Protein 1
Amino acid sequence: MKRIPLLNHDQTLFRDIEVFEASFVPEQLCHREAQVKELAFLISPALRGASPENAILRGPPGTGKTSTVHRIFAELKEATRRAVPIYINCRHDHTTLAVYQRIAGQLFGYKTPSRRLEDIREAIAAALRETDAALLVCFDDAEHLVAAGTYNNLLYQVLRLYEGWEDLRAPGVIVVTSDLEMQLYAEADGAVRSVFHPTEIFFPPYAKTEIREILTDRVRQGLYPGVMPPAVIDLAAGMAGDAGDIRLGIALIKAAVLRAEVDGRRRVTKEDLISVAPGIRSPALEVRVAALAPGERALLYGLAERSLSGEEMLSGAVFEEMRDYIAVGKTTYYNRLRRLAAAGIVDLLRGAGGQQVVVLRYDPGDLFAACAPER
Ligand SMILES: Nc1ncnc2c1ncn2[C@@H]1O[C@H](COP(=O)(O)OP(=O)(O)OP(=O)(O)O)[C@@H](O)[C@H]1O
Ligand SMILES: [Mg+2]
């Protein structure tokens, strides 16, 4: 009996499917030359036996902050042993112990069995001193440390690691956030600030043309020539630009190529892209909604309901209508609205007669799904 292959790798349109994975770090970060250069400059003293400078990286989701850090850390590891770059994902590691263990794990190559902070700290300092290396810690998505109440203590502990050790260089830290309301310098208390003098590097949102170039580059790396025509990339870039989310463009392209593959076609069409789009929620929306406080999420849910029912979205009228449901006063309501705007989920525009209008940036159905309590 002839077997029909269910998975046929010969037919693939992907030259390298990993290029479309969230963990992929591109070699070239187009339109981020200035940021990469600035961060490299701040770190460069570490290569010459001095301490790296501190930095704050700030910018909306998907603007290349994490990629920039990974790119520079990879180069630093290749270039020198005099600096030890450690990447901490604060969504996962936000207690002092978890961070110490992560640093020790990367420094020694295994997870320390010890749970005593002092022991781990000593071992880290001793290892750095022995190799005459400067520690450089990146706290990515540092707003999670602020939320967990560990931000000041961790910064204090890491930045003052050299104290009590002769010949140990002061470590550097890079703190990263996509929460534009979060002021990571202002969050630092006096004791931290006396050793924390960061330079801020801003990552602005990409324009549609920039998104198109980045996606074109990704397609060149990840797909065989001719698989995705420029007009289809343009459409993906337009959709990603409208959502303010480059990740959406990458996810759309991957899904559209898979669809063409299943159909046994060698070329992706606009129809592929359009037909996969409803199944792909904006990854940025998920991140943004996950970062909201419960009250903000409740307001967003109410706004999505109102928008679906087709009612006008003047912010004053919305408040009157929803005041019982949200059970808060006017000031809190407007604060929450501003938070939703700062998170890039709604826009607050001036309408006729100077009245403020709330405009949802996303489809109400997607907002319901993202706000659903089980998420
Ligand atoms: N300049 C660029 N060139 C190529 N790819 C990029 C560029 N900027 C972002 N990307 C891609 O976009 C996605 C998001 O980038 P990244 O994770 O670095 O953003 P971020 O600013 O850290 O976002 P968040 O704040 O949500 O963590 C990744 O898949 C990354 O490869
Ligand atoms: Mg990031």
Protein 2
Amino acid sequence: MTKLADWFETSNDATKVLLRLGARPDVISLAGGLPAPELFPGDAVADAFAHVARDQAAVSLQYGPAEGIEPLREMIAEQMRAEGATSVTAENVIITTGSQQGLALIGQTLLNKDDRVALDEPTFLGALDAWRPCEPGYTAIDWSGNAPGFKPSDDTGAMPKFAYCLPNFRNPTGETMALEQRRALVAAAQRDDVVVIEDNPYGALRYEGVQPASLLSLADNGGEGPYDGHVIYTGTVSKTLAPALRVGWMVVPQRLVDGIIISKQGLDLCTSPLTQYAALRLIETGVEAETATRARDLYRGRRDAMLAALEKDMPAGVTWTRPEGGMFVWLTLPEGAESRDIFDRAAAAGVAIVPGDVFYAMSPSRNTIRLNFTNVPEPVIAEAVSRLAGVIADRARDAA
Ligand SMILES: Cc1ncc(COP(=O)(O)O)c(C=O)c1O
């Protein structure tokens, strides 16, 4: 079990350096996790905001319910039922200020100091940031043996407070959890009475292959709603519409709903009703679905461009993931190579990357790199990968 303080100073430093690098016009950034700005439906967003401010001012400009506006919660519940979680009702849905806030609310509601969170490393840095104030410890989900499991604490015998998973196109590795793993994880959650967070910001960005069932649908017993299973689901419009809307949602088991709403109320009273009504309109009028379709088409080409460039240019001994969706490819350098060293050399060559060690809460792997492929045009991706490959080959020669 490792405390966050052991690594967060270094990740903070990396974030600062990355922000400075990203601002340099001569640097190609494969470091961020940003949507392509050319996809943003600016006119439709302007029309939606104008419409709800003008025609629905009484509700869109007023404070709203802490749990979110009813019609949006109804619409999300319907979407979740259509995706197989058949007992989810609007009562289970809480609208959040981005799904990041959902993660923070779960921590604020469930975690006490020294409680443990179970997860797979590497993992989403923002989740670790969200829980840092709660000072939890971390433990790996145990995938060894026939069934995954959660280890009781050596000190107290307590099970982890919850587990955190990114089943679709995990940030940072791009990997997807297979159906049998999903089934086994939900079975373990039910057996050990541990709630699992299914964080799914990238699910709609699938470029090939078949979508396995969500953890939420596997945890749903299909009975009368509201849903009261062992999975909390977090979703967002950030990757299918625009991150600036800051509209996300959580599907929360009924027994936890009141606690989360109280936390949400204490944090910001409510997510802006203006943006909630605008997001609802953008979903109802098909703008979100159309933007997601354009995103899939654009990003599929960019992913292919990155994979082709890696294949063409990377020296022997470097391996990488081949994501079916999402925004990231994860590179593993030969044993002994330091990605921090590559980071500095790549920056000098005009390419920003993220050293993989910042995505770990326990045992950082120092020879890994996260690459983003969504924010840069295909020819520029090819140029960036070629420069990075040159840097990695030079570094290997220097070390030999
Ligand atoms: C895995 C993961 N979860 C959650 C978020 C937060 O998204 P948002 O708060 O914009 O909904 C992100 C953002 O990139 C992410 O990568």
